[in-house]
Amino acid sequence: MKVLKLNRSTLGDKMFESIREKLNSIYESNEISSHKLIAKYLIDCLDNDKTPTTKECSEVCFISESALTAFSKKYGYQGFREIAVRIKVERELYKPFKKDTKRVKTTNVRELVNKYFDQIDLQEDQLNKLVNKIKDANKVYLISSYEQEENVNLFSSELHFKNIEAYFTKQKRLEDMWIEKCEANDLSIFLVCGLDNQSLTRLYTLAKEQQKNIFIISSSSQSHKFKEENSIILQQECDMEIYLSIRSIVINYLFAKILSKL
After folding, report:
1. How far apart, in whole angstroms, are the C-alpha atoms of residue 150 and residue 141?
2. In terms of Cα–Cα distance, which of 88, 79, 76, 72 is closest to 38?
3. Which of 256, 236, 243 is nearest to 109 (CA)?
4. Measuring CA to CA, which residue among 177, 190, 185 is closest to residue 233?
């Protein structure tokens, strides 16, 4: 079997690039329908712990193998084989979240949730800083990872009930415009967790370069990407199946604390 060889510069450029995010962007864009079908097939491979093949993808998407090569090169890959390698690498990188992950010994959910609530409470000074920034802001822009969109959408609605002009959208293409239009007395809150954060790091860099008013809420595994003193860190147990559910509870606890102080 022929093995794909990636040079050092190629790996370096793509080391922190999430292929899931790129595929999500293609699937949600106005690209031609065949490209959306390919992206959907590849996303399904990621979700179902499968390695994509040109033969299966061609059959599922009703396209030729040469069309797969054209698709791959259009989005910056040497060929479909490189996409398959990138998917395998990303699955291995985030292996702790797979269903067959070994459970940690602690199974008392109440204890785990209380531990994470305590970690939020220990950051009371930062939480108060965020509350004051929201109070002082003319407009609040909420920018979220895919994983927490529903919770952030609810938080945005609850801010409106507090007569705070808050904005949230699932249309990622609008967020660049928000950063550009964000004024000195506006606030951009980034909620960063999960696997799909390449666009958020890019938007954060853009906002930082333009000296925008920023606050970061980040999982501990993502916090190293943001050198920001205005931040709240959500600690995490990477080897726990149930952590995704617990993180949602903890984030809503944080949001409830913020709302209670507004």
Report:
1. 15
2. 72
3. 243
4. 190
